[in-house]
Design brief:
- The complex is a heterotrimer of chains A (333), B (257) and C (287).
- Chain A has a single domain, classed as ABC transporter involved in vitamin B12 uptake, BtuC, CATH 1.10.3470.
- Chain A has 333 residues and is an all-alpha fold.
- Chain A has a two-stranded antiparallel ribbon.
- In chain A, 75% of the residues lie in helices and 1% in strands.
- The radius of gyration of chain A is 22 Å and the shape is globular.
- Chain B has two domains: 152 residues, Rossmann fold, CATH 3.40.50; 68 residues, no CATH class.
- Chain B contains ten helices and ten strands.
- Chain B is globular, with a radius of gyration of 19 Å.
- The two termini of chain B are 33 Å apart.
- Chain C is mainly alpha-helical.
- Chain C has a domain of 193 residues.
- In chain C, strands 1-2 form a two-stranded antiparallel ribbon.
- In chain C, a hairpin with a 2-residue loop joins strand 1 and strand 2.
- In chain C, helix 1 packs parallel to helix 5, helix 3 packs antiparallel against helix 8 and helix 5 packs across helix 6.
- The longest helix of chain C is centred in the first third of the chain and has 31 residues.
- The termini of chain C are far apart.
- The chains are: A mainly alpha (333), B alpha/beta (257), C mainly alpha (287).
- Chains in contact: A-B, A-C.
- At the A-C interface, helix 5, helix 12 and helix 14 of A face helix 4, helix 9 and helix 11 of C.
Chain lengths: 333, 257, 287
């Protein structure tokens, strides 16, 4: 057995593949200058793309890297909406309210995470869905604070619709970029590696020295941070929030599906999935308003049957090879 | 030589079942100790207790002078107490190199991934798996998987290595290779406790043997004394084996080996 | 004193229905390891079918009951066989999302077909009064039938070939397959049975409560809570959980209001999940 200097195989270390980052840079650059040319309809669409992109990237930490099936997105976003709205109504300036809401939601997730992460698999899924319900009920019942079922009005942003549209768009874009940077960092760090270990074999990860509880809690908290920001921005944007929509089960289901569409546990999967999803919704929803949910359902079924790893994990080479071999087989026959 | 691991009156109850009963022994630094006993004797449970996978009902585990009875597995790993599994548990979607890197990164505390990978490669070379570094861990054959387990636990920079039936499922030549490897590990100064059913392996490596039966330590001492101990013969070895060792005609009984 | 008795009586009548709600859900979760998000919609579907049979064709709900059961069984069987069986070995994220997606489709079509206005089968059977406690006859009948159906399911699980096969698959899927049990078929039977129980529950509920598609989520939530309280995969567990929840909601609902009652149920569930995820009845054991 050789014991001389060990040379690392050259393709080990993640020599950063530049290509995806380049595409992303172009996409962001385009988004940044787009408001100069487009009307408010497209700006609104782009705002949703950034919003869902942030939500999907957030979910990716706990659902993608760590592999815990969380359905808490609506809980965090709704909490952020209410926190931001309440603070703004109390007189706090908008951006400060956003920051405080983010901090509040992050603390909430860190505390709740300690409890909820003891559950595994199905129980964790159910626990996280129930959290959404519980928060919705509390928002409905605690009317003194939250306005109850009537909802809450947020002071409308001054400056006119065009200016407002741009402000909120750029705010969501900034959050998305922050979420992306965080994902990039986690993906390459010891934390990311540890989360992958936990995902693949939690007991083995424990044995090998990963402090499993700490890493899981960090992932769960990270999955909440930007949801809180997005929620607060959303509340200021639409100026009115109510329990049923803020803590919507549909949202909490859509976000994981978007990430699954693009590819869980990757850096760009959530972004691709969410952008595609928003596009699909916009084109289809406009056409078939009555069948909106059924179409979503069909998309989910098709996704699960035919794209189990998401778009980024499709073995394109295998697919291409199958097409060419069937060609040659047909010729030989 | 100083004591590196001490187990005092360790017990574990599962409801009414006493899996481990008042077990006491100690390991000296650099020793190779064998742990034998019939199936269900509690050997793996004992290892689980020592590494924090199971919580002891009573008793103490003292490692390097510190009471670590209540520790969690990752703490055991970081303090230098490593173990292998009977049924190998790799990270299925990672390569061989990544699996070993995990050990170096988290337990041995390498400062960053590149350094951990270099250490991992050294360990892979040591066990002879370097050519397969970039293959998926699940593509390895059973003997290679056992060596991967070994490399992973070595990457954790252990002071004490608990090997749980590393040789199960290997043929004779593979076992010879494993023996060479284990002697090389011991030569590095790592204390080894070897759980084994193959008496040939146990006898050729161990300086001392412990015998577990129904959760109790029924014998401990140097190999010759232990294998001729009548309690051990009755519980586990069988008179045929004992007689063979002594070159005497056997009495009626069933051999376990 | 009569108030307390009334609350308890209400709780029991409610609890029987709740047990019926949960038993199918518990079966699917315990045997197939799938969280069935379609369950609430199955219940509502059963309720709607019963209502329309009664409203348009004057068919009594007690006659509709077996028909609804049959229809939903077939529906459940095929949904499992064609769709869920394909992903049965995949992790919970996949299976839950799939049933969620299928539910979206069913929900959408129910909304379009039936419209969301609340419907209730009003049988006008009057009520009994026992020692100051008012027991509406329709609720009483629903309760008795709910107990009866649950008991029937228990009997089927224990004594019939199908029941034993289901238990075998639940205990060890691979061993069952080696014994010649067609696992895919058994899975479909289980899901079909669960859908049947849900449909039956819907029929019973339509007599007591207004049925609307808006309550599918509510019903599903109750099923979650009951399964965690009572433990998975056992009929007695669903019964205990259902009665426990029924009583709790009756008490809390009486003193604080309906929404607090629901909130309370969820909080109990979360507390149990954190401390004892296997439920009050204990392990995932089987009858």
């Amino acid at each position: 057995m050789k014991t001389n200097s060990s040379t690392l195989p050259s393709t080990t270390m993640t020599r950063a593949k530049i290509f995806p980052h380049l595409i992303f840079a172009v996409w962001v650059a385009w988004l940044t200058v787009m408001p100069l040319m487009a009307d408010n309809y497209y700006i609104r669409l782009a705002t949703f793309v950034c919003m869902y992109g942030s939500l999907a990237l957030s979910w990716n930490f706990i659902g993608g890297y760590a592999g815990y099936p969380s359905f808490s997105t609506a809980a965090f976003m709704g909490l952020g909406s209410y926190a931001g709205a309440i603070l703004q109504k109390a007189g706090m300036p908008m951006i400060l309210a956003w920051v405080c809401a983010t901090i509040f939601v992050s603390l909430f997730a860190a505390l709740v995470g300690a409890a909820i992460l003891r559950m595994k698999g199905h129980y964790f899924a159910i626990g996280s869905i129930s959290m959404v319900e519980v928060l919705r009920l509390i928002a409905s019942l605690w009317s003194d604070l939250t306005g109850g079922g009537d909802g809450l009005n947020v002071p409308i942003f001054q400056g006119g619709p065009d200016y407002a549209a741009r402000v909120f768009f750029y705010s969501m874009l900034v959050v998305m970029l922050l979420a992306w940077l965080t994902t990039l960092f986690v993906d390459r760090s010891k934390l990311g590696f540890g989360l992958r270990c936990i995902n693949q074999n939690e007991d083995a990860a424990d044995m090998v020295g990963v402090s499993v509880n700490r890493y899981k809690t960090i992932a769960y908290t990270l999955s909440a941070v930007y949801c809180g920001s997005v929620g607060a921005i959303y509340a200021s944007w639409v100026s009115y929030i109510a329990p049923t929509d803020s803590f919507g089960i549909l949202l909490t289901l859509k976000v994981p599906v978007m990430t699954m569409l693009g590819g869980v546990g990757t850096v760009y999967g959530p972004l691709i999935g969410s952008a595609l999803f928003v596009l699909m919704e916009e084109t289809i929803w406009a056409q078939f308003l009555d069948y909106h949910q059924a179409i979503l359902g069909v998309v989910i079924v098709l996704l699960i049957f035919f794209l189990p790893g998401g778009l980024l994990k499709l073995d394109y080479k295998k697919l291409f090879k199958r097409k060419t071999t069937s060609h040659t087989q047909a010729r030989r026959a | 030589m100083s004591t590196i691991l001490e187990v005092r009156d360790l017990s574990k109850n599962f409801g009414g079942l006493h899996a481990v009963k008042n077990v006491s022994f100690s390991l000296k630094k650099g020793e190779i100790v064998g742990l034998i006993g019939p199936n269900g004797a509690g050997k793996t449970t004992l290892v689980n207790l020592i590494t924090g996978v199971l919580k002891a009902t009573s008793g103490n585990v003292i490692f390097n002078g510190q009471d670590v009875t209540a520790q969690r597995p990752f703490q055991a790993a970081r303090s230098g107490l490593a173990r292998t599994f009977q049924i190998v548990q790799p990270f299925p979607q990672m390569t061989v190199l990544e699996n070993v890197t995990a050990g170096a990164l988290f337990a041995a505390g390498a400062s960053h991934r590149r350094q951990a990978e270099q250490q991992a490669m050294e360990h892979l070379e040591f066990v002879g798996l370097a050519p397969q570094a970039l293959r998926p861990a699940t593509s390895l054959t059973l003997p290679s998987r056992k060596r991967l387990e070994l490399a992973k636990s070595l990457a954790m920079n252990p002071k004490v290595l608990l090997l749980d039936e590393v040789n199960a499922g290997l043929n004779t030549s593979e076992i010879e290779q494993a023996l060479t490897l284990m002697r090389a590990i011991a030569a590095r100064g790592i204390t080894i406790m070897l759980i084994e059913h193959l008496m040939k392996v146990v006898l050729s490596l161990s300086e001392r043997i412990l015998v577990l039966h129904h959760g109790e330590l029924i014998s401990q001492g140097d190999p010759q004394t232990v294998i001729t101990d009548p309690r051990v013969v009755e519980a586990y070895l069988g008179s045929k084996f004992a007689a063979r060792q002594q070159g005497v005609a056997p009495t009626a009984g069933v051999a376990h080996v | 004193m009569t108030l307390l008795a009334q609350i308890i009586a209400n709780g029991l009548m409610l609890g029987a229905l709740y047990a019926c709600i949960a038993v199918g859900f518990s079966l699917v979760w315990g045997v197939l390891n799938v969280i069935n998000m379609l369950h609430g919609s199955f219940i509502v579907l059963g309720g709607y079918l019963t209502f329309f049979a009664w409203f348009h064709f004057k068919i009594s709900p007690f006659v509709s009951l077996p028909i609804v059961c049959g229809l939903l069984f077939v529906m459940g069987y095929f949904i499992q066989y064609l769709a869920i069986n394909r992903v049965i070995t995949r992790p919970v994220l996949t299976t839950l999302t799939l049933t969620f997606g299928l539910d979206m489709i069913l929900y959408n079509f129910m909304n379009l077909g039936f419209e969301a206005t609340p419907r209730r089968v009003s049988l006008d059977l009057g009520s009994l009064t026992l020692g100051g406690v008012i027991l509406p006859v329709d609720r009483l009948l629903a309760m008795l039938l709910a107990f009866g159906l649950t008991g029937l399911l228990y009997y089927v699980m224990r004594s019939s070939r199908i029941g034993r096969a289901i238990v075998a698959v639940r205990m060890d899927r691979d061993a069952a397959a080696l014994m010649g049990i067609r696992v895919g078929h058994i899975y479909a039977m289980t899901f079909g049975l669960a859908a049947l129980m849900a449909g039956a529950c819907g029929t019973l509920m339509s007599v007591v409560f207004p049925i609307t598609t808006n309550i599918t989520g509510l019903l599903l939530g109750k099923a979650f809570v009951i399964c965690v309280i009572g433990g998975l995969g056992t009929v007695p567990g669903a019964l205990v959980g259902g009665l426990a929840l029924g009583l709790t909601e009756s008490i809390v609902g009486n003193f604080m209001g309906a929404q607090y009652a629901i909130l309370f149920g969820f909080l109990i569930m979360l507390a149990l999940l954190i401390t004892r995820p296997t439920g009050l009845i204990g392990k995932k054991g089987y009858e």
